[in-house]
């Protein structure tokens, strides 16, 4: 089993941790708000260790379950301890003031910007098209959740794919890290569609096969 | 019923025409290669009129089922007759030399570039995430095909949504025409995923709801 560390104590942490525990993975949650992390850990279906950001990271895979700006800031702060680690970027860098565009530079993505901040880490894009509710539920409309995984490091990508598949979801290899540009566009679109889809935030983006 | 005119005589024309005929819509196919249009019309399950590009357009909705460059060139040629019409852009402006990026300018899309060429037309983005095979089949893995529809003109968007729904698919309102940027990224991603998905080109991008 792959141990994972999730940084942040919000809804996406709840979702990813729930799936990880279902897959038998050890989970560590580190957060600035250690009280929130402790409360969340108590509500999760399994044993989770918690601590402040800065505690020794026990996971082989580190998930930054934070908004875009915060993820970059924490990554910069933890650059040295993240060196050599698999670091998963899950963010959609939406301009929340307008909800009409992304804040990342043209021809880049949250994942690629993160990779510039932690060049010695193996950055993987994943979980940016899966909402927290379906992650907790473990499915959407009876379907396994599709998790699109993009990375330049083949070994790191394989580790995340294995983590996803072993946690009851379906990993889809989405290619190189720069495909995060399209994945983040898709994640953003999935968010903007909520108005037309009833604002349940319980939908999933699925590739259906004939 | 809404009459539609499709320009081009390739696989996407076959797919969209098949669905349109299933919905009881009259279909006209105009193509440079009128022999190909005639052959295709003979293979379609219903009555289809054909002719060369330049023939009077009978459809209320005009679908440009052509590669990106060709679609822009034909639109420029037909600018006057397309004025006031609903013009549907279905293309993914992929750089086929590298299969690694889109050829459209940053912060734009095929649909927005088309709208610049035919400013008096009502440009609608649709059908760029649906492959030809599933359109002919009418489904993917037992699911109705999701067709994402983006446009600035509300009436034109409603007409295309109605056409899609009445032809046995599910239209999803994807917002303003600029959302074509994300839709084309998603369409491109769906194409690049084919390697990982077995190269069947029979998959569909579906929003599943809890």
From TrEMBL, chains A, B:
<dbReference type="InterPro" id="IPR051267">
    <property type="entry name" value="STEAP_metalloreductase"/>
</dbReference>
<protein>
    <submittedName>
        <fullName>NADP oxidoreductase</fullName>
    </submittedName>
</protein>
<feature type="domain" description="Pyrroline-5-carboxylate reductase catalytic N-terminal">
    <location>
        <begin position="4"/>
        <end position="93"/>
    </location>
</feature>
<dbReference type="InterPro" id="IPR028939">
    <property type="entry name" value="P5C_Rdtase_cat_N"/>
</dbReference>
<dbReference type="Pfam" id="PF03807">
    <property type="entry name" value="F420_oxidored"/>
</dbReference>
<dbReference type="GO" id="GO:0016491">
    <property type="term" value="F:oxidoreductase activity"/>
</dbReference>
<dbReference type="InterPro" id="IPR036291">
    <property type="entry name" value="NAD(P)-bd_dom_sf"/>
</dbReference>
<keyword id="KW-0560">Oxidoreductase</keyword>
